Amino acid sequence: QVPLVESGGGLVQAGGSLRLSCAASGSTFKINTMGWYRQAPGKQRELVATITSGGSTNTADSVKGRFTISRDNAKNTVYLQMNSLKPEDTAVYFCNADGTTIWGRGFASWGQGTQVTVSS
Questions:
Q1: 43 three-class SS
Q2: Above 90 in pLDDT, residue 27?
Q3: Could you point out which of 2, 7, 66, 104 has its C-alpha 20 to 30 Å from the C-alpha of 117?
Q4: 3-state class of 101 per DSSP?
Q5: How many angstroms from the chain centroid is the CA of residue 24?
Q6: What is the pLDDT of residues 31-83, one digit of tens each?
């Protein structure tokens, strides 16, 4: 497993913005896809957005036009810029990364989660 460290969650009013960051710790791996998922109370975890090492993105319809995923491959870091936040965006946001280690093993790691709360 490759450790992922998230930051940037918090409390914001509706219409506000937050930026989440997630960094993969170490260097004995190559990451393919990184992404963000979220889980609201009583609901299943759902995809928010993913980005490949080449920069191709996939974004959930519910956040298109408001959230932007980006990535710094040199820093093994993925970002999620969240604008025009709505109360329904309230959830724990999880970072995810998959790839291979230098020993040829595949991995899929999850961050510990960061709380995003949007007040109305």
A1: coil
A2: no
A3: 2
A4: strand
A5: 12
A6: 999 999 999 999 999 999 999 999 999 999 999 999 999 999 999 999 999 99
Burial 61-75 (b: 16+ CB within 10 A, else e): eebeeebbbebeeee
Cβ–Cβ < 8 Å for 82, 62: no
Phi, psi of 96 (to 5 degrees): -140, 145
CA distances from 63 to 2, 45, 88, 101 (A): 27, 15, 11, 32
Cα separation, 119 vs 112, in Å, equals 23
| Per-residue model confidence (pLDDT) at position 119 | 97
Q: Indicate the burial class of 97 (C-beta count within 10 angstroms; 0-12, 13-18, 19 or more).
A: buried
Distance CA(100)–CA(18), nearest Å, equals: 30
**Residue pointed to by tokens 């946001």:** 93
